[in-house]
Amino acid sequence: MLRNDTFLRAARGEPVPYTPVWYMRQAGRSDPEYRAIKEKYSLLEINQNSELAAYVTRLPVEKLGVDAAILYSDIMNPLAGLGVKFDIQKGVGPVVHHPIRSEADVLALSTFDLEPLASVLKTIALLKQSLTVPLIGFAGAPFTLASYLIEGGPSRTYRHTKQFMLRHPKSWNLLMERLSDMAARYLRAQIEAGASAVQLFDSWVGQLSPVDFRHYVLPYVERIFVALKDLSAVKIYFPGVASGELLPELKTLPVEVIGVDWRVPLDRARFRTDNKFVLQGNFDPLWLEAPRSAREAYARSILEEGLKGKGHIFNLGHGVYPEADIASLRALTEYVQTTSRALRAT
Fold it and tell me: What is the pTM of this model?
């Protein structure tokens, strides 16, 4: 039963008593209990076990006291519904067995089927019954998923992706259509299963110039959110790291919240988006290793800046690193909630 809706109210720009906080990748790597689970099960095995995935999703709510839960899953999961074979390799990340390099490869993708994702939707249904805070579902954005499909895995230069985009625009558009329609269906299914909000992760789109983003990617991001406009769930777009120059391009997106990485101050992000959105972010995750006094001073500066805009949700500018100390995360959560309450009362 939902008892704490502070995150949802803040996301809609409504008055809240304090700044809500959650962390990307809060369910996982920094938690010793989670690491013990990972010694027995792979990420994909956990995802296929709805009870276990729900348990892992709940862990940070109980241990960190955050104001929202984010589904324990992976952005690669829906690609199984297109017939894509992939692994998540330790120390590497997603590895696609047969990378896409031609129009024939795009045409060979299966018609999207939600059936391989039944366990994910069951996990959401279980969480809806047990969580006291909102659940955030998510999907990978078309460019980021396309980069894995074309590169075959993580990349530093995204050379093959950009070559495909520039040399084969017809095939690129076809691939982006397939991926955006897949993401829209997957996010809709998550909302219908019980997610109160959804976030579209575009982890690597900061590799593009604003011109290339506007021409080759933005129409497909818009396509996803337009397809969800009839649903009341909160919509969040996170354009990943190094994406500050892309922020002015996002003004037309039909979303409530834009995620910001730590490289862009909130006041600049607010200016670049004409204060149209609630902003989410943007604590540098490596600052979790700073002395507590410095860490709290940094967090306070973000909270103070967040009060000046349409709304603010405290988060990291990227995911929690595996080396993060769970006690530091808990202390940061308490500091954000307590300090923001005091700031809002003055």
Answer: 0.97
